[in-house]
Amino acid sequence: MRSPAAPIRSALPVMFALVTALPGVGVAGEDQPIDFARDVAPILESHCLSCHTTENRKGGVALSTGEDLIGLEYVLVGDPDASDLIALVTPEAEGGRPRMPLKGDPLSAEQVDTLRRWIASGADWPEGLTLSAGETEIWWSLRPLTEASPPEPGGILDAWKSNPIDRFVFEKMAGAGLSPSPPADCRTLIRRASFDLVGLPPTPEEVDAFVDDDRPDAYEHLIDRLLASPHYGERWGRHWLDVVRFGESNGFERNVLINNAWPFRDAMIRAFNEDRPFDRLVLEHLAGDVIGAGDPAVEVGTAFLVCGPYDDVGNLDPVQAAQIRANTVDDMVRATGEAFLGLTVGCARCHDHKFDPILQRDYYALADALSGVHHDSRVVATGEQRRQDAERRAPLIADRDRLNAEIASLREAIRSRAEADAAGIEAEWTRPSVDRTGTEESFDPIEARFVRLVVEGLDTDPDRSAGARLEEFQVWTPGDAPRNVALASNGGSAEGPSRVAEDFADAYSADLTIDGRFGSRWISGGDRLTITLARPETIARVWFSSDRSGAAGDLGEATFVGEYRIEASTDGESWVVVASSHDRRPANEAHRQRRLFDREASPEDLARLDRLRDELDQVNASLAAIPPLPEWWVGSFREPEGPSRVFLGGDPQRPGDPVTTSSLSALGHLDSAFSLPADTPEAGRRLALARWIVAEDNPLTPRVLANRLWLGHFGAGIVATPSDFGAMGGEPSHPELLDWLAGQVRRNGWRLKPMHRLIMTSQAYRQSSAFRAEAASVDGDSRLLWRFPPRRLSGEEVRDAILSIAGALDPEMGGPGFRLYRYLEDNVATYVPLDAPGPETYRRAVYHQNARAMRVDLLTDFDCPDPAAAAPRRSSTTTPLQALTLLNHEFTLDMARALASRLSRDSGDDPEAQVRLAFELAFARGPDDAERAAAVALIDRHGLDAFCRAILNANELISLD
């Protein structure tokens, strides 16, 4: 038991964050006996319990019950002077401030006196009573959706009355003394709508058809046509891929490509085109394998969980491995909280969130839901596909197993015989085994023009001869002044099949063995390396190394020469063996067994083995010919080991209390709030979390979704921080409108296309983007929408638009992506941008295989985000590099030539007709007189290619009004 005189007492200043002091609450008259409910409880509820309830134990302290406060001796009954509670709320010096509360006004002298008298009188606490925090204001995003009807502001224009959005916007605008802009013209509208919905410019034919359509609902028909286009999914699927941090490489130091991640990209494009309800999409993202087992179109959704960066470097240190795993789960928790709920849940990893009502336990409750998810590929196939595959493979697998058993039995019989003669055979092995850091063979001088190394076995596998690594191969002349005549600098050349490294054919070339440098290696694609000397030479020694520094260690993939022979020839036809490893000690036991086997096996044994191997090769070939079931990067799932725990300070080495999957405590008042028992299966945890995210009473998800849609059309959300609806994010510029739109999301069954139509048919969206200085002085960012906010096209839109205008765009949808870089994987990845991308890269940019930390000139320069992190809102910069890239990049030059060919083909040799078509393609309008004259003069002076290059560099092309 702690002594009353013990010091306070070091932990308590952190424990008691007393806030919102209310001076008039909880004061008892001196002659009036203390009543706990009337006098003490209000002080604790108003000042202590915002931080120290049973659910929210700041500093590990709860003060909700008598056991919390008295049983743990923060109050010593009958002795207020020795009670920690009194010491903390009393100033240490007259006129000073007490240590608590840290925020807000100190307790009044009367309130402190009330607490002292209560303790002195026995600190009575009613049995079974649990206090709760006093009323505090709930943050706006956590409140239930309001059901406000659209307003009817005075003075509203007739055209602004029919769409409820306009009534909300007009009321806010008029309240600031602003008025709307006039409608945009038809050509501006179709260009705006086309880029917004499909990410491509309208064709001249589409523009003319819309301009000539005199139906009163012509614009609505335009929107419906664009929403029905398959290109809609390509445009809005790209938005969502930004939000969920979709990338196609691991990131971190290895950053190797993930070549089977693309099905998720295609699935998102398909889902948007089908107008799949968003609540269903959430379920598929978190638990597609649960709700749609056997349906690839549903199971692919779980790729959301694993489409972010992750560290795939194995670590033998258990501490580091635990940290990497915690970081991996953290990425999934953050992505889930931000993408769907708009909350920075990840900030509660190490402690309670500093600004939002998110507890550290909340973070680990979500982590528990996702703790069984692992970054991996998984077979994604229908039940029928699996059945057919199993039927085709079963008899072949049985034959394979039978043949392997026969081969193993025969080999074992031969090995058993060989062991009886082992001593005599081993006596012949007199020299040291092959040394990967350097092996030398000396022999009688011989004249040769050709020297070759024939690999008879790898150190890791005596039965394999292809795949050996070799740094250097040297051929020396005899005498007192020997020369390495194999060196390339001495006229030597090397030839041997090499491993192909993705887009870098010469990465592991045989030439590396004679360059005189160590470190870089030839990786063989066969079993021999042939050196051709500049002229016939007398040679007497060969030296080669696979790992001179010894740095490769025992890496399983680093295979080196284990058995070999050296041959020489004068003509390249007749070869003489000058040295071999046959009299060296074997590299390991596997090599020993192989040598004994080779000495003991009879011709009959070898013939039988050959027959069995031929049969096995045929069976394996038949198995390999069966198309494999698709394996996609969608994650794998397994039950976690042991209970999840809070990590104190976020450190996996400091496990705290156990925790189970539950909803956020700040939304604990919702009917949908839940907490699962610890034995809930892994799949059930993810499904429960997904269902809570889209529950009817969860206000966050529809608000966040409505805001993302608004952002996609106006360039800024009603909330400026689309993935942070917390205290450090923005507050809504039009809160009533946001809630009304969120309600519409639900009323429309979570379908997005009706929401697009609603937003885009509003007068707010259809306004001109013309600048008005007077309005800008009031609302410079146009947050109140007194005009349509103009924007620069995204990097993908710039590239796609140029391809479309030039007539070069490849319309192929789906499938593996194209690359605007050359790729090399050698443990770590190397990406080198293509200097001259060809027609195979002319698909839409959404199909580019986006690797993390990889630069693609045009896309990167125009602010395409690195998928190393989520990009809920694109940056839009203006830099000299953008202009230089657009002017000089080989892609732009190629497209200028392609556009010139298109203009010549479609408009003949008439410069004015060519200019008119170019303007219609690029800007959805014809040229004015001055533009026409200047363009024709440019063509006359510098040619059509130069004019087309100027068109593709026009600011109007990459801007949207």
How would you characterize the overall build of this protein?
The protein has 961 residues and is α+β, with helices and mostly antiparallel strands. Among the domains are: 12-136, no CATH class; 277-379 and 635-698, no CATH class; 430-585, no CATH class; 891-960. Strands 3, 5, 6, 8, 9 and 10 form a 6-stranded antiparallel beta sheet that branches. Strands 1-12 form a two-stranded antiparallel ribbon. Strands 2-11 form a two-stranded antiparallel sheet. Strand 13 and strand 14 form a beta hairpin. The longest helix has 38 residues, at 383-420. GO terms for molecular function: electron transfer activity; heme binding; metal ion binding. This is F5/8 type C domain protein.
Keywords:
961 residues; alpha+beta; six-stranded antiparallel β-sheet; two-stranded antiparallel ribbon; 18 strands; disordered N terminus
